[in-house]
Write a structure and sequence with these properties.
37% strand; 1 helix; alpha+beta; Lipocalin; eight-stranded antiparallel barrel
Length: 120
C-alpha cells in the first residue's frame, strides 16, 4: 500500500510539472494581445488559440472578425487569413510588432504594437 501511495504521489508531481511547461522558444504564448495604444477608444485585439488559429477583434461596431491560422518562423509570427492576406509580426518578449501587411485593406497598419493582455 505504501508503494502505491508513493507511486501515485510521484505520478501526480510529474503530470503537474508537464502541464506547467512554457511554450517552445520562438513561439508566442497562446493568449490575447491588445493594441498598445488604443486610439479613439478602439477595442482592438488578437487572440492566438492552442489549435493554431487566431481571431482579430476590430471593435464593437464592426461585426466582421478576421480569422485564420498562425505559424512561427524565425521568431516571426505570421497570421494567414482565409483570403490569403497575411500579417507578419516581430516577437519581442510579450510584444508583437506588425512589420508587414500583404494587402491595403487597412485592417491593421505596419508599426502597430500589441502587448500581452494581463486579463487572459
Amino acid at each position: 500500500m505504501k508503494r502505491v501511495t508513493i507511486f501515485l504521489t510521484l505520478l501526480l508531481f510529474i503530470l503537474s510539472g508537464a502541464a506547467c511547461t512554457s511554450p517552445k522558444q520562438g513561439e508566442p504564448p497562446v493568449r490575447k494581445y491588445v493594441l498598445q495604444e488604443s486610439k479613439g477608444g478602439k477595442d482592438l485585439w488578437i487572440l492566438l488559440q492552442e489549435d493554431g488559429t487566431f481571431v482579430i477583434h476590430l471593435g464593437i461596431a464592426i461585426s466582421y472578425e478576421p480569422a485564420g491560422t498562425y505559424t512561427v518562423e524565425d521568431h516571426e509570427l505570421i497570421l494567414r487569413m482565409h483570403n490569403q492576406e497575411t500579417f507578419r509580426f516581430q516577437m519581442r518578449q510579450d510584444t508583437l510588432i506588425l512589420t508587414h501587411v500583404s494587402s491595403s485593406e487597412g485592417l491593421l497598419l505596419e508599426g502597430m504594437r500589441f502587448i500581452r493582455s494581463k486579463s487572459d
